[in-house]
Amino acid sequence: MSSSDYRRKRSCGFASMISDDYDLRFDISNRAYIPTQLQWGTPIFGECHLNDSSDTYCTSDGCSTGIGTLFLLLATLSTYKVLKRKQKIMLKQKYFKRNGGLLLQQHLSSNEGNVEKIKLFTSKEMEKATNHYNENRILGQGGQGTVYKGMLIDGSIVAIKKSKMVEGKKFDEKKVEQFINEVIILSQINHRNVVKLLGCCLEAEVPLLVYEFIPNGTLYDLIHNQNEKLPLTWEMRLRIAIEIANALFYLHSAASAPIYHRDIKSSNILLDGKYKPKVSNFGTSRSVAPEQTHLTTRVQGTFGYMDPEYFRSSQFTEKSDVYSFGVVLIELLTGQKPISAEQSEPVRSLQNKYLAI
Questions:
Q1: pTM value?
Q2: Domain 219-355 is classified in which CATH homologous superfamily?
């Protein structure tokens, strides 16, 4: 075959599932021959003829078949994307209900005049804010979850608590109740010495809380891991004690309804940029009617800070919070831990030591 004939007779390949004996014939002009073999599908080879005229024509139904196959693939891909998007929406709705979203909406709407505005964040916003929950963003971990340092779209720095709801493969409903309770309680509070809740995310697998960022750790760390560059002066101790007392007074008497914190301790008191205290962690807190006590079926709190009367009777009052604050006050003044394994059994706790005096 001469080179001119070779250039006029060409093999054209298509990626398709059509049988191998299908024949395509084309007549095209003014094209250089480039043999093509795709790496997927079954190739179809046909002869392409050139005429001297500038008209092009197809001697086979291959063009229609190829275009039809292309449209079928595009339609399939489009349908897959739609179904995938719908599946994600349904999954988010499932998480929203499981994380108490409907109950939370109902409560916040029924108390609209007495609550601070709580924003609902999307799971995508939370992933972006924490760089997909990067370990380098972790501020701390505890029994109630992991706290990440995050940056919102507007550039503001926040603390994002990823609640610990799943133990093994079991979803803990009680922790969902604590999560909802913390949102409800903090939505009723507006005080400079109480950590501010900015919003929450309910459409993720586990719910998330978004707080103002408090940069200087906890009061526990300040007392027991003292920094030589920042000595804990008596003036600082006194100011911190007074401001914690102000926060407790607000919770017990000045809030829209009395609130019992039920877990006052130095590790639940955060310190802002100016080392002003912020009471935090309201998961086990309760809002009660005035002059009422709160009867519990399960004692909540931390040993070393817990009111012995509450431990015996399961009746929690504002005095129980005040007792716990008294332990924090002794801890702040003496620099001693509330529980110390180094001490003998009779005075193992800080409270017993000073009650015995």
A1: 0.72
A2: Transferase(Phosphotransferase) domain 1 (1.10.510.10)
